[in-house]
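Support request, please re-run this one:
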Amino acid sequence: MNVYEEVQAFYHGYRGKKRVIGVSREGREIFALFVGSEGGAVGIGVYAIHAREWITAYLAMQHVRRGLPRGGVWVVPLANPDGALLVQEGAESVPLSRRGGLLYLNGGADFSLWKANARAVDLNVNFDAGWGTGRQNVRAPAPANYIGPAPFSEPETQALRDFTLEQSPSFTVSWHTKGEVIYWRFRQSVLRAMRDKKYAGVLSAATGYPLAEAPGSAGGYKDWCVEKLKIPAFTVEAGREQFSHPLGFSALADIVTKNLDALVKLSYAF
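Re-run finished. Output below.
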């Protein structure tokens, strides 16, 4: 099975609270599963928003299996299902009418480094938070870094936006690969930065990853949560730097070992 089929099967077999929060450009469902208990602080964990980082969907399923003894988190295991399948299966994963354009943009049939969705929009620069001001942003369809024609132009980012606004979470965490670092800052005021750095330190202690700032980034899910919702939000770059993109199953054990308790420890902090 490909990663979408595995996440889909996991979702259908899950006995807890769950829902479909939207569909991708190609009509694939975007799943969310709730772990923990309601009534207190609730967070959101987002995984595999970049296509080549599909391995984080398997970390998501481990987080669901791990559960939460306190607090609650909505886990979105595969935010970019179309892109993940482009990486895994190539252009055959999209309708025939769209294959030629994607092959042209990609420069060939090897989609292993593709980050975008099926419309060649990088979902993690498509949020309305400094949209279009990122250091690496591009303004035409591409395998990575294309901001899209407008903020929230994509059904995947619209789904995450609407679901996040509906849940009004206390925090969010986005799992990416690679580099073993935690990004936590995006134009916060001094007081909010002090608060957010404290929670980032909890994640750092849980994973062993150091904290860092990414001054050239903008338009990401974490950035939007910090700027618009004014909540602590984090990007965790899991996986050792020496691993090559796309990180596969050979990197999974190391990622799970270092990140398994991250949501547990963060939820306790709230």
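The chain has a mean pLDDT of 97. Residues 190-207 form the longest helix (18 residues).
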